[in-house]
Amino acid sequence: MDLCHVPATREKGWYLALMASNIKGPNYAWLDPSRLYCHPQGLQDCLADLLQPFQGDPIDMVAGIDAMGFILGAAIAAMLQKGFLAIRKAGHLCVQTLTQPYTDYSGREKVMEVRTDAISPGLRILLVDQWVETGGTMRAAIQLVERQGGVPHPCVSTGVAAICIEDSEGGRWIQERYKCSHCIPPRLQPYFDRHQ
Fold first, then answer.
1. Which residues lie across from 64 on neighbouring strands?
2. Is 80 within a domain?
3. CATH number, position 53
């Protein structure tokens, strides 16, 4: 698709056609949204769709998950004129951190970390990632946010936003507990869940 072309009618999710299928094998995600980020109108419409369910909600900070969640998260933070917090893969921050082990979409055991001086009790945070497949990564990020302050659930997570939240056990767990937004129209959700 032409990276300058904008369709005459822009239905929700029109920009999903900009994404490219995996050609490198099972060690990679099945779909690559990075071309969507190169399309000015596609990116703007994606961000607007992600934020639409949160219109009027108080959001104090946006947190993006390493690494592709940094793109959408920082863009959303700039649109909202809020601060941006990077939730990192362990070993990248040179300050005091909290860590959380998790299993990613490929079944690999990993550890995520966040600095300890950015979140205060009661802060309302919008967590952003590119994709929620099994939910392990997002759940670890939620746990890191909610652990800040040293008592159970001191922070109020405003919600979760991702291009796609798959209908997996982990995806359902997140959607049952938190306000969520994603860009996949209901008629297309089964295709994304089956990675088609």
1. 86, 128
2. yes
3. 3.40.50.2020
Whether residue 57 lies inside any domain: the answer is yes
Query: Residue 24: which of 16, 15, 34, 32 has the closest Cα?
Result: 32
Could you tell me the end-to-end alpha-carbon distance of the chain, in angstroms, rounded to an integer? 18
pTM: 0.92
In three-state secondary structure terms, 88 is strand
Identity at 13, one-letter amino acid code: G
How many CB atoms lie under 10 A from the CB of residue 42?
A: 25
CA distance 109 to 101: 7
pLDDT in 10s for each residue of the chain, 196 residues: 577 889 889 999 999 999 998 888 877 788 899 999 999 999 999 999 999 999 999 999 999 999 999 999 999 999 999 999 999 999 999 999 999 999 988 888 999 999 999 988 888 999 999 999 999 999 999 999 988 854 444 566 679 999 999 999 999 999 999 999 999 999 999 999 998 8
Domain residues for the domain of 166 are: 44-186
